[in-house]
Amino acid sequence: MSETPPNTLQYRFDGPEDAPVLILGPSLGTTWHMWDRQVPELAKQWRVFRFDLPGHGGAPAYPAGSVTELTARLLATLDGLGVQRFGYAGCALGGAIGVELALRHPERLASLVLIAASPRFGTADEFRQRGVVVRTNGLDPIARSAPDRWFTSGFAAAQPAITDWAVQMVRTTDPGCYIAACEALATFDVRPELGRVGVPTLVLVGSEDQVTGPAEARTLVAGIPDARLAVVPGASHLVPVEQPAAVTDLLVTHFSTAWQPIADPGTGQTAIPAAPVKPALAAVPVQAPPVAPIAEIAPPAAQPQAVGRPDPYDAGIKVRREVLGDAHVDRALAQADEFSGDFQEFVTRYAWGEVWDRPGLDRRTRSCITLTALVAGGHLDELASHTRAALRNGLTPAEIREVLLHAAVYCGVPAANSAFRVAQEVIREETTPQE
After folding, report:
1. How would you classify residue 338: left for phi > 0, otherwise alpha for psi between -120 and 50, otherwise beta?
2. How would you classify the pairing of strands 47-51 and 21-25?
3. DSSP for 335-400?
């Protein structure tokens, strides 16, 4: 595409124009080229549609911070092209988009393959810390470690050209878009909803995947009705690259049997029938249920109106976890007992639900204010946790340094001296890439 609007995605088509559309979704840090070795075979039967995530593969850098937003951009792109129904295969973050499609837009989806996917990718803390590392050090540390996460050691050693391609692919990604994609994975959790996935689903995983391995794949299969599992031997996370032939065969078999396209001889277009309630080998026409006359439909019962303000506790616990991290909040709540439990509830409801959740200031600004107040009060334990929070909220180490220097003028040099020691240690821990 010559120009990609902010609400759409960069894409390309391969295969016959009158064939049913099959979409291939990429993993975080990759481009549509991760599917290059599947396309020649798939394009014999399908109109293959590949897309790049924002800021990946030279795509415009319009960050998207949730899987829901990425899915909306994909659908906006397809709507503009007149593509209404399609098959979908996605790897990792691309798989999360596939689950989102199945849950929120089942009428668009004919069949689904989830590769190296999970109903929840690690923990929110892990992905938010990765964002801190990228914000501080750039993408080079992530790029250099990508082959270890994506490929088995034998493959990486035997295929230096592909290994170098993987490193360069990550290095050329826009850092802001990469961080936003980390946030999308941090907040993705569909474990309670898997039972509502109603399209024919194949879950595919590499036997050596240490990122989202067979255990996560089995969780998907256990939760999705009638889903099937395929474990590819000798492959790690980026299965389509490491074992292209095996993945291609599995995709061809699944999409050939789980979804049969019907061509309209009058228009030459290919229509994909609606997915049945249960996976079937061939599409079966579904008789629409009779619609009751309007007069026979009873009016809905009046719902009682909520009185007063909503309890801010739920909003507070959400913001508290997003800012301080799940591990910190879990420890605080686990240590609460009959004596301190009321205080933890008070903090969650009023500090986090009433104040931190107010729209008047963004979280970066609130972190600056909080750090200054903690320096003034000499609250070094709280300063450590809020330095971590400031990094999560988007402050760089250089910006935190400026906050502490400013605090030194107004709060005193001794207080700032202690604050610098605490913050320096936290920043070292949080911004050192994990090898």
Report:
1. alpha
2. parallel
3. H--TTTHHHHHHIIIIIIIIIIT-TTS-HHHHHHHHHHHHHHHT-HHHHHHHHHHHHHTT--HHHH
β partners of residue 203: 114, 229
C-alpha closest to that of 204 among 189, 194, 214, 190:
214
**Nearest C-alpha neighbor of 196 from the set 273, 72, 104, 118:** 104
Nearest C-alpha neighbor of 374 from the set 383, 365, 364, 366: 383
Handedness of CA 100, 102, 104, 108 (dihedral sign): positive
Both structure tokens of 414? 């001794």
pLDDT at residue number 278: 34
Q: Find out whether 31 and 50 touch, Cβ atoms under 8 Å.
A: no
More confident residue, 235 or 303: 235
What are the beta bridge partners of residue 90?
25, 114
Task: For residues 266-279, give the mean pLDDT.
Answer: 40
In Å, how far are 90, 128, 145, 430 from 148, measured between CA atoms? 21, 20, 6, 21
Torsion of CA 10, 16, 17, 22, to 10 degrees: -50
Lookup: tokens for 262: 């019907």
Strands in 279-353 per DSSP E = none
Q: Supply the pLDDT for residue 433.
A: 84
The answer to whether 139 touches 56, Cβ cutoff 8 Å, is no
3-class state of residue 29 by DSSP: coil
Compute and round to an integer the Cα radius of gyration of the chain: 25
End-to-end CA distance of the chain: 37
Bridge partners of 202, per DSSP, are 113, 228
Structure tokens at 174: 């826009």
HEC profile of 49-69: EEECCCCCCCCCCCCCCCHHH
* pLDDT-wise least confident of 178-182, 300-304, 322-326, 369-373: 300-304
Tell me if the pTM is above 0.70: yes
Distance CA 167, CA 368 (A): 35
Question: Which amino acid is located at 369 in the chain?
Answer: I
Count of other CB atoms within 10 angstroms of residue 414 = 10
Question: CA 240 to CA 227: how far, in whole Å?
Answer: 20
Contact 119, 210 (CB under 8 A): no
